[in-house]
Amino acid sequence: MAQERMLMEKERALVVEFGMRMVQSGLTTGTGGNLSVFRRESGLLAVSPSGIAYDRLSPGDVVVLTLDGEVVDGTRTPTSELSFHQALYRVRSEVGAVVHTHSPYATTMACLGWEIPPVHYLVGFSGKKVPLAPYATFGTERLAAGVAGAIGDYNALLLANHGLVTVGVDLPSAFAAAEEIEFVARIYYQARTVGTPQILSDAEMARVIEKFRTYGQKKA
Q1: Which of 35, 87, 88, 162 is 20 to 30 Å apart from 95, CA to CA?
Q2: Phi/psi at 184 (nearest 5 deg)?
Q3: Residue among 4, 17, 81, 180 flagged as catalytic
Q4: pTM above 0.90, yes or no
Q5: Can you give the pLDDT at residue 216?
Q6: Ordered domains of the chain (ranges, CATH)
Q7: 81 classed as catalytic
């Protein structure tokens, strides 16, 4: 008898894979952070569970829900930050994945209450800057509202006294934004310890963002 396929099997496997990569890349520690994938055609999202270490995570631990929060597959409790994942999918129709990290340098910026300006062109992974959402207790509707209100058309957002959240059309692109913004946050921190960093202009960042649209290998 053929084994029944797991609901959103591919997306659940991606959550496990990129959860491990978050830890291996130093973007979070322990059970910190969370990530999800949203399949708009079915209206279902696969999200990491609460309080399970990424090296112990299996696809069966990943929770599948509707956008309204109804669990349709899985026995685990979803991440405590589910509400801001849902909010981001509602306000950005092109977003297919969300990554939340506690990466050291981006979190340092968030704890200082600083946005990240275009100190390096790779801030273009977010947009012309990385904005800052106001502080709210983790896992609350107030935090979700603050995230949804501050994200605008950016792909990365600092959460005051908390961490970083990134979005993308898929999980690889959201994860790439988290990695690159952590790099830029480190450069900005280091530059400010030495002197006053030079900031790129809006016009230059517009050129960079346009070049990003055609960067990389294209399908034949």
Answers
A1: 162
A2: -65, -40
A3: 81
A4: yes
A5: 62
A6: 9-212 (3.40.225.10)
A7: yes
